[in-house]
Write a structure and sequence with these properties.
CATH architecture: Sandwich
Number of strands: 12
CATH class: Mainly Beta
Number of helices: 2
Low-confidence stretches: none
Oligomer: single chain
Strand order of the largest sheet: 1-10-7-12-5-2
Bound molecules: N-(carboxycarbonyl)-S-(naphthalen-2-ylmethyl)-L-cysteine, fe (iii) ion
CATH topology: Jelly Rolls
Largest sheet: 6 strands, antiparallel
Structural class: alpha+beta
Distance between the termini: 36 Å
Order of helices and strands: EHEEEHEEEEEEEE
CATH superfamily: Alpha-ketoglutarate-dependent dioxygenase AlkB-like
Length: 203
């Protein structure tokens, strides 16, 4: 396979099965306090196929009226986001390579037919900090490109327990999730994939 672009630090099977199960219990608590909701595209209001929630001081969201942004409260309940579980802070400490703690953890839930189009992550004021991604449940086909939408892309699979750290110039690469491979993991009680994305938002 092709080597990954500079700035992508891939840790396959970083979490063993017991660690994935323990982390999943923490995420179930987060979702109990801050339910998954369906985000909408700015202006069109078209629903995303991925359902989302957050933990941490700030959460990323999008809706028709106000578009992409970070805010301190859940868009449906109006409550503050729950705290980031300690296990996630520990993972950030050990492989994130950033001395300050993450401020936001986006929880993405992909059902068997969900996907995420090619995009850049640029809603954070601090683009120097890395982004750390953890995959749980079914595998997906992930795609990473260059710094313009039409640049060539490379695809690879992300599997349950994999950790990906995006730093340096790669922080602004286009990326997306082309498809889920339903039934490739027994971690979740049903089909689907959870991705946790830890970020700093403010300088
Ligand atoms: C590569 N999520 O929430 S995380 C997102 O699997 C998002 O749910 C995907 O993209 C998911 O914004 C991918 C991995 C990721 C995150 C940021 C990146 C890959 C990246 C930034 C640059 C290049
Ligand atoms: Fe992204």
């Amino acid at each position: 396979p092709d080597s990954l672009p500079e700035g992508l630090d891939f840790h396959p099977a970083f979490l063993d099965r017991a660690e994935q199960e323990a982390l999943l219990l923490d995420i179930r608590d987060v979702v109990a306090a801050a339910p998954l909701y369906t985000p909408e595209m700015p202006r069109s209001g078209k629903p995303l196929s991925v359902r989302m929630t957050n933990c941490g001081r700030l959460g990323w969201l999008t809706d028709r009226q106000r578009g992409y942004r970070y805010q301190e409260t859940h868009p449906v309940t109006g409550k503050a986001w729950p705290a980031i579980p300690r296990k996630l802070l520990d993972i950030w400490q050990s492989v994130g390579g950033c001395d300050r703690p993450p401020e936001a953890c986006l929880v993405n839930y992909y059902g068997p037919d969900a996907k995420m189009g090619l995009h850049q992550d640029r809603d954070e004021t601090d683009l120097s900090a890395p982004v750390l991604s953890i995959s749980l449940g079914d595998s997906c086909l992930f795609r990473v490109g260059g710094f313009e939408r039409n640049a060539p892309t490379r695809s690879f699979r992300l599997e349950s327990g994999d950790v990906l750290v995006l730093g340096g110039e790669s922080r602004l690469r286009f990326h997306g999730v082309d498809r889920i491979y339903p039934g490739t993991s027994t971690l979740l009680k049903s089909e689907g994939r959870i991705n946790l994305t830890l970020r700093r938002v403010t300088p």
